[in-house]
């Protein structure tokens, strides 16, 4: 059933009454299958001449979606109704990507066909090698990824027509399958090593790690425990409702921009330290703290608003409880460090002590600041030998499945229209122009 049909089918609750400047209007209230009800204020401006004002969209539902549900107070995250820890423990990333895209888990035959189709799209056009060579070797890999993702539109003209469902599906396969290749190429280019081609007999995470760490000089075997951990981490990062980068993708897509350009916009938004860039910032923070004995001093700085210092990897716009992804990542971290014989990793000791202190400190308790998805992921990546500049790139590789599923859901909605918010204008009123000679 299409999203819009479900919205109309939702039981109409008692309408909301709103009065402003002597005008009283009624707005429909819709109830979803879970989560807060919504007041449909789309007629507010035409009925009252007023806009709503909600910077940061703290109280705004930008769309109707069936993909991901979050309950921030209870620390719940579900993709298409399945709890994130159940999916992380029982599925692989491509199975979860299929679920996000299609709404149901695949049966054996569907999964084999989906995996095979993805495999056949992992290679990128050979000309892309020249695009990479145009970047300085020291470029931040997110800059390379933003450029490379958008550049796919220059190569794949047969999947640019956003009004053709088949081309939308083809671009979804291409983006999910090629992001790991682009990411590994960004890493190889930054360390001056040759690009490694995808291997069709490998699984998604194994192939990604092979492209990252293999060289043409000798056979490289990916540690299966690390490949499974990487695959699980990708699942945990795959989607997250209408976060900043997903909203950016939807906003870009609402103008009819092609999906490659929309993913590039999502990568740009994810790069920020308040969003996906936080995993890199967490490692920098732990390294800056340097030793458990320095934690009290650091916490003091965090509490001093003037310092501008934040406890990176903590806090969340929606979760006012422990991020369920952080719980799975904490378990995965111990598994990876155990496998690598690094269980006494100094950064882990600092992270665990920092978490213990923060969770017992009134400042963080009253603000409901808990570890989020970024708090532990960086330590796992670092233990795997992945440089911190690549952490947000891995986030983008995973989130591409969510971004493209959300984009597809929006494009499948016949009522989709260009997103065009308004504003509260507090600038100058009309004034007389003064020619340059008289200023
Ligand atoms: C992701 O939206 C998503 O779903 C994102 C994400 C996804 O999967 O897509 O989950 C991925 O982006 C996770 C978040 C990663 N970012 C970080 O770890 C950066 C550190 N966190 C903060 O920047 C902050 O917590 C945000 C941006 C995540 C959320 O900020 P909000 O919701 O705007 O909350 P706020 O800034 O209004 O904070 C409320 C209070 C403030 O103090 P007071 O003004 O009330 O005194 O809490 C304080 C803030 O100063 N606060 C923090 C803090 N986060 C909030 N204080 C210290 N350290 C922090 N990390």
Which features does this protein show?
globular; 19 helices; 439 residues; 50% helix; mainly alpha; 7 strands; disordered N terminus
Proportion of strand residues: 5-15%
Secondary-structure class:
mainly alpha
Taking pLDDT < 50 over at least 5 consecutive residues as the criterion, the unreliable ranges are 1-9
Mean pLDDT: 95
Shape: globular
Measured between the Cα atoms of the first and last residue, the distance is 63 Å
- Residue share in helix: 40-55%
List the helices and strands in order: HEEEEHEEEHHHHHHHHHHHHHHHHH
Distinct small molecules:
s-citryldethia Coenzyme A
Strand order of the largest sheet: 5-6-7
**Biggest pleated-sheet summary:** 3 strands, antiparallel
Question: In DSSP terms, counting alpha (H) and pi (I) runs of 4 or more, how many helices?
Answer: 19
| Total strands | 7
| Rg | 23 Å
């Amino acid at each position: 059933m299409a999203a819009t049909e479900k919205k109309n089918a939702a039981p109409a609750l008692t309408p909301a009454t709103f009065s402003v400047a002597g005008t009283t209007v009624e707005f429909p209230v819709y109830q979803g299958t879970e989560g807060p009800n919504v007041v449909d204020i789309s007629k507010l401006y035409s009925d009252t001449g007023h806009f709503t004002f909600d910077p940061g969209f703290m109280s705004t539902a930008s769309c109707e979606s069936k993909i991901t549900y979050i309950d921030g107070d209870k620390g719940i995250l579900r993709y298409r109704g399945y709890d994130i820890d159940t999916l992380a423990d029982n599925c692989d990333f491509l199975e979860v990507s299929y679920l996000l895209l299609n709404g149901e888990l695949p049966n054996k035959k569907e999964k084999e066909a989906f995996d095979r189709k993805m495999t056949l799209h992992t290679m990128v056009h050979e000309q892309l090698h020249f695009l990479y060579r145009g970047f300085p070797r020291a470029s931040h890999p997110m800059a390379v990824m933003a450029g490379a993702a958008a550049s796919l539109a220059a190569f794949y003209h047969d999947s640019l027509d956003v009004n053709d469902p088949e081309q939308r599906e083809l671009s979804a396969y291409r983006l999910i399958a090629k992001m790991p290749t682009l990411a590994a190429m960004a890493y190889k280019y930054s360390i001056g090593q040759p690009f490694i081609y995808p291997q069709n007999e490998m699984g998604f995470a194994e192939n990604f790690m092979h492209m990252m760490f293999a060289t043409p000089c000798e056979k490289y075997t990916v540690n299966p425990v690390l490949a499974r951990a990487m695959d699980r981490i990708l699942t945990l990062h795959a989607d997250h409702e209408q976060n900043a980068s997903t909203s950016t993708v939807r906003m870009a897509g609402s103008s009819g921009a092609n999906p490659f350009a929309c993913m590039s916009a999502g990568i740009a938004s994810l790069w920020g330290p308040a969003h996906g860039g936080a995993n890199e910032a967490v490692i920098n923070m732990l390294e800056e703290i340097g030793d458990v004995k320095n934690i009290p001093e650091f916490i003091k700085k965090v509490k001093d608003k003037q310092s501008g210092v934040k406890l990176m990897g903590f806090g969340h716009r929606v979760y006012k409880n422990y991020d369920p992804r952080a719980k799975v990542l904490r378990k995965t971290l111990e598994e990876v460090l155990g496998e690598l014989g690094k269980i006494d990793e100094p950064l882990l000791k600092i992270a665990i002590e920092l978490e213990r202190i923060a969770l017992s400190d009134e400042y963080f308790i009253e603000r409901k600041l808990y570890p989020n998805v970024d708090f532990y992921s960086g330590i796992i990546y670092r233990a795997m030998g992945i440089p911190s500049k690549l952490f947000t790139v891995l986030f983008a590789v995973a989130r591409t499945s969510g971004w493209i599923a959300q984009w597809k859901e929006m494009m499948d909605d016949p009522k989709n229209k260009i997103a065009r918010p308004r504003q509260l204008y507090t600038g100058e009123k009309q004034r007389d122009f003064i020619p340059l000679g008289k200023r």
